[in-house]
Structures are given as structure tokens and as C-alpha cells.
Amino acid sequence: MPSFTPYQIIATFISLLAVFYVWSLVMRQKKTIWEGSLWTIFWVAIAVIALFPSVLDYLTFVMGFKDRQNALLITFLGILSFIIFVLIVRLEELEQRQTKLTRAMALRDAGLKKKNAEGSAQ
User: Fold this and answer.
1) CA-based angle 21:23:28, to the nearest 5?
2) Mean pLDDT on 69-86
3) Whose CB has fewer CB within 10 Å in the chain, the N or C terminal residue?
């Protein structure tokens, strides 16, 4: 039986908790399946690297870096940058929806928008 360091045990435990938490948010419809999948990939990668550090040797070879630390740093910066990009896109979508809703409410309050399909104005 392999012996694990405290770091490996704690990192894996935290990763599992994070994955369960993310999917509980997905089940409560507070996060999308897409977001849940992205965060799951991120946290599983953390757990795999904690449990099997030799995975970094393969990553280092494939990416052409000299050492593990550079490969790890660049990979996770890329993953986190992608997550930030996705969040910014979602934020912009929410801003656009808020603008449309505010406009519709302002027109309704001003009596300029039809209330129902029959064409009766408020």
C-alpha cells in the first residue's frame, strides 16, 4: 500500500469537497452543467497532480518545458485564464439582460409599451 503525505491527503480531500460542492450548486440550478464540468476538471487535475506528481513529467515533456514547476504554473494559469474568460462572458450576458429588463420596465412605467398581445396600452 502506498504511503501518502499529509499534503496529498489534504489536497485530495479539499478537491473532492470542491467537486461535491460544485455539483450541489448545479443540482440546485445555481450553476450550469458547463460551469460544473469546468470546475470538476480543475479540481480533479489538482487531486491527480497531488496524488501522482509524476504526471507532471509527462506534461513537462509534452509542453517542452525544462522542469515540472514551469509546466504546472503555465498549465494552471491557462486553465484559470479560461475560467475567468468564461465568467466575463457570462457577466456581459447578465449585463445585457439587465439592460433589456430595465428598458422594458421604463417603457412600461412610461405607458409606451403595450401590455398584452391584443394591443391595449397601459
Assistant:
1) 95
2) 78
3) N
